[in-house]
Every structure is written in structure tokens, then in C-alpha cells.
What we know:
Layout: H1 5-8, H2 27-50, H3 60-81, H4 88-108, H5 122-145, H6 156-159, H7 161-176, H8 192-224, H9 228-239
Transmembrane segments: 57-77, 89-110, 122-144, 156-176, 196-218
Keywords: Membrane, Transmembrane, Transmembrane helix
Protein name: Integral membrane regulator
Amino acid sequence: MTAPRTALLPRPRAAEVLPAPTAPRRPWTAALRTLACGAATAGPAITLATGSTPPPLINFTVLANLLVAVAFGWSAVRSWRGAPPLPPRLTGGVLLLAAITGLMHHLVLVNYAETPAPATGLSLAATILLHTVTPLTVAADWLLLTAPRALRLAHIPLWLTAPAAYLALTLARGALLAPGSPARYPYPFLDVDTYGYAGALTQALALGLLFTALAALITAADHLRPNVAGWIQHRRNRISPPAAGGLK
Length: 248
């Protein structure tokens, strides 16, 4: 009795196995995202160095900038190596955090009398980096360097876990600190001493609904915006010289 025909076929050697195709490296994208990572890191670093009040690591803006720095640093490495981009469920969450940071500062917090005016020098530089430069760089990356129609409404609950976790952290920290402690609550609309838990949670719920609407607006805009990244890549491919050996 002879062995089956398939058993008689030679096994492919390791050298004969073709390597998996890799995407081209994107050095310009990596460079721009490295700069964005640096800007998102510089703001928290200056804030920590100047010892601002409230403590920097309980400030939503500082924590959001640190998350942006991690995401953009990771994305820059992947762009440099030619790896696939980060999934939209992560990049959309980073975009929402950056939008919340910029809009809350410029539209809400500046109208509170309790919000201290930024001083000159390093404090002013940190304020501009945290609330303006980082949100704008994240928005520019989304508009210019990512493909459209990737965000989904199903991603929104995941994106909102960060603000919800921050709310829980803030209220737990405030409950552990003694009444009258400086910067017990980092934002005036979350001040339980002033509004009570019912009032603070009501304002937090209203903000949560606004954040949900903002996330839905970002998702809708993502499906309507033009594919600038694809156009840039197409233009780059048209002007790139042919590879060696490509012409016969």
C-alpha cells in the first residue's frame, strides 16, 4: 500500500516562503506626529515644573494631554515602521478628548470667575500648549493624515469612558480630602461643597450629554469630510520616480 500522493510532495523550505508584504514607511507623517507628541508632552511638563494649582495630575487637561502624547508617540513609531495606523476606536477617543479640552477651556472655564488668569512666561506657555496647540494638532492630524469614514457611532460609549472615569476619580478624591482643602475639586462645576452631590452630578450629566453630542458631531463630520490623506498620497505617488528596474 502506497502513501497518499500529498504525503509524497516535498515540504517548502523556510527560505522559499515569501515574506509578508509590508506597507511603505511614512517618514513625514512620523515626523509630524512626533512634533504633536512633543507639544502634548511639553504642556504637562511645564505645568508640573511650575507647580500650578490644582495639582497637575488631577487636572483633566493635563491627563488628556498625556494620553494624546502616548497615542501620538505610538502612532509616530508605527508610521515610521510602515505599520498599520491605530484603530479608529482609539484615534476617535483621542480626538474627542482633545476637542473637550479645547472647547471647555475657551467656551466654559474662561467664563468662571474662580478660574485664575494665566500669568506670563511659562504658565502662559503651558496654557497655550494644553488648551490650544494640542487640540489643534490633533484636529489637523485627523483632517489631513487619516482616512475619512472610519469612525462609528458604536465607538462613542468607549470614548466616553475616559470622562466618566475622571468624574469618579474627582469625586472620590474630593470625598477623601478634608473640607476646605485647597483645590479639593479641580473644576468649579464639580465642587460638591458649593452645589452638593446632586448639583455636581446634574452638571456632570449635562456635560456628558454635550460630550455625547460632540462625539456624534465628530463622527458625522468624519463621514462628510474629503479624503485629504488619500489625495496627498496619490500626488506623492505620481511625482515619485519609478523604482530601479521598473523600466524595461
